[in-house]
Write a structure and sequence with these properties.
Number of helices: 7
Structural class: mainly alpha
Shape: elongated
Distance between the termini: 85 Å
Radius of gyration: 45 Å
Largest sheet: none
Number of strands: 0
Length: about 190
């Protein structure tokens, strides 16, 4: 019996030492690719800076030429700052828009992060007082609003004769039968 209750576990096709070796090879490969990516980024940065900001030859320039060069560099710095500010504004706008769209998606899915609520014991009168305000005096006496029924009324309803419907089918057919049914529904006239 105990052998039948046990569920056989699947053995992996790869041994533990082989798994460890493959894992270490994957980590080594990922490390190499990361280092290569960092080197490529540095090379691209140097290429970009060489293209946008060539090295300056200031040794043969006069004082006026140096001042003009400084003005040009300040103008370029201002342009770059304006571009940076515009790009930052676009990024902020896009992140805000992405956040709003994510909220809309969550609303459409109906998945909300509901906070953990504490259990609070409040009487029904206190709940009504908080909803309606302290001006209104509301008591939660539910039996006060019920209709009172006399026992005589219920006995009259039970005493109505229940007859076989098949006996009066022909008598109640046609307009005369409908008039009789209407008059019977009205009840006895006083």
């Amino acid at each position: 019996m105990p052998n039948q209750l046990q569920i056989p576990q699947k053995k992996s096709k790869i041994s533990a030492s082989r798994k460890l070796m493959l894992k270490s090879l994957m980590v080594a490969k990922a490390k190499e690719e990361l280092e290569q990516e960092l080197i490529e980024k540095e090379e691209e940065k140097e290429r970009y800076l060489a293209e946008k900001a060539p090295p300056l030859q200031t040794s043969s320039m006069s004082f006026a030429e140096l001042q003009e060069l400084c003005r040009e560099l300040h103008a370029k710095i201002d342009e770059v700052d304006e571009e940076r500010y515009d790009i930052e504004a676009k990024v902020i706008h896009n992140t805000r828009e992405i956040k709003d769209l994510n909220i809309k998606v969550l609303d459409l899915r109906g998945k909300f992060k509901r906070p953990n609520l504490r259990r609070v014991r409040v009487s029904a009168d206190a709940i009504l007082r908080s909803l309606l305000g302290s001006k209104h005096k509301v008591s939660l006496d539910l039996r006060a609003n019920l209709k009172s029924v006399k026992k005589e009324d219920t006995e009259k309803e039970k005493s109505v004769e229940v007859s076989d419907w098949r006996k009066n089918v022909e008598a109640m057919s046609g307009m005369e039968g409908r008039k009789k049914m209407f008059d019977a529904a009205k009840g006895p006239t006083q």
